[in-house]
């Protein structure tokens, strides 16, 4: 996709069947930058409410970041695999290898630096991305668009019925409470409490059972990607995307009345809400960037988008390495180098600890902006 605004014909009629969408890279980069921001506050004890997850039911802007990324995974599948449906075992082998690589990268993040196999968390964000990518890719290769819709609806309705009707062993009734719901029981039984998310203790927000509706988030992305790639007029594509996004969002809000929006459980209402908002967001980016040719402030986020997995992995690994470097304070206590830098150079000018914490997170993101911009200008793209 050419970036020159003088090529107005190319911009106003983007060849989405064959070319890469700049808006998709921008939307991916914006999502990953937000993910890095919320995952790296200066002080975990002082965070503004919109930058925290909802305690249980309900949602905040932070709760939309992960499903947005899975939605983007689905959109990207249509661009990467549509021309390879006839490649058979070759393309399936590459899908499996990429999924395994993502899973192992996520497992390594959990494993480092303690390397304790008896307590390491098995699942996590990259692991869920790996599973969703694997399943959605295979569904895309082996089914029709209509069949994909049926599969998605079946998974959402089936998950709703499982979570609200099936009695939980040891509890005796179906419920959606943190420690006693069916997904928590499944995690405790299959994964065991020693290998789940430590703050939750007995359940995992990226556990196995809740991965089923997460697959539908990817399928919504696939449907969006196929719609963007068809040959219909651009105005018609954008109109339908906005309409579908509004309907999905409304459906999620309605379903919330009897199956609450909940990220930890990845409830069906949450899938519709996040999928609808993601569709609206990408449609807006597509219209502004690829159709209208708006470019101001876009490329720095594109730099984030083309190395998304790399920055997510390293932004999780580097703070852990920095915490291994201990610095002795005047009172004799030791703290990690990351915390030392925050306390020494970022926090002092701020009276409000929440402002200081946000400044620490923004500083971390800006450092990555610099690194990724250099990589983008040098055409350094690390593919997983």
From TrEMBL:
The keyword Transmembrane helix applies. It holds the Pfam family HGSNAT_cat. It comes from the Bacteria. The chain crosses the membrane at residues 21-38, 64-83, 95-113, 119-141, 148-168, 207-228, 240-258, 270-289, 301-322, 358-376. This is N-acetylglucosamine related transporter, NagX. InterPro entries: HGSNAT_cat. It comes from Spirosoma radiotolerans. Keywords: Membrane, Transmembrane, Transmembrane helix. The keyword Transmembrane applies. PANTHER family: LD22376P. Residues 20-164 form the Heparan-alpha-glucosaminide N-acetyltransferase catalytic domain.
């Amino acid at each position: 996709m050419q970036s020159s605004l003088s090529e107005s014909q190319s911009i106003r009629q983007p060849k989405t069947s064959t070319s890469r969408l700049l808006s998709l890279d921008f939307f991916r980069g914006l999502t990953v930058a937000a993910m890095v921001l919320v995952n790296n506050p200066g002080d975990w004890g002082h965070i503004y409410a919109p930058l925290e997850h909802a305690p249980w039911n309900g949602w905040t802007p932070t709760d939309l970041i992960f499903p947005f990324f899975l939605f983007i995974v689905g959109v990207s599948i249509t661009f990467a695999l549509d021309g390879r449906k006839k490649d058979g075992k070759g393309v399936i082998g590459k899908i499996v290898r990429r999924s395994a690589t993502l899973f192992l990268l996520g497992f390594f993040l959990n494993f480092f630096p303690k390397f304790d196999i008896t307590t390491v968390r098995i699942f996590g964000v990259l692991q869920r991305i790996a599973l969703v990518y694997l399943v959605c890719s295979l569904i895309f290769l082996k089914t029709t668009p209509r069949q994909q819709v049926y599969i998605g609806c079946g998974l959402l309705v089936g998950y709703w019925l499982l979570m609200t009707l099936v009695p939980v062993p040891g509890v005796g009734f179906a419920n959606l409470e943190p420690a006693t719901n069916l997904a928590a029981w499944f995690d405790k039984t299959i994964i065991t409490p020693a290998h789940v998310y430590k703050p939750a203790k007995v359940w995992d927000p990226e556990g196995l059972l809740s991965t089923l509706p997460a697959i539908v988030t990817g399928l919504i992305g696939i449907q969006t990607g196929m719609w963007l790639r068809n040959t219909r007029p651009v105005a018609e594509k954008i109109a339908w995307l906005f309409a579908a996004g509004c309907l999905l969002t409304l459906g999620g809000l309605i379903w919330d009345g009897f199956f609450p929006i909940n990220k930890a459980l990845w409830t069906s209402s949450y899938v519709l809400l996040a999928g609808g908002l993601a569709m609206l967001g990408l449609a807006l980016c597509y219209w502004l960037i690829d159709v209208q040719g708006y470019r101001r402030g876009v490329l720095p986020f594109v730099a984030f988008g083309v190395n998304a997995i790399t920055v997510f992995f390293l932004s999780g690994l580097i703070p852990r390495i920095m915490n291994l470097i201990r610095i002795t304070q005047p009172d004799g206590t030791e703290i990690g180098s990351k915390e030392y830098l925050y306390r020494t150079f970022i926090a002092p000018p701020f009276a409000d600890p929440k402002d200081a914490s946000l400044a620490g997170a923004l500083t971390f993101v800006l450092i990555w902006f610099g690194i990724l911009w250099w990589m983008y200008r040098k055409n350094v793209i690390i593919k997983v």
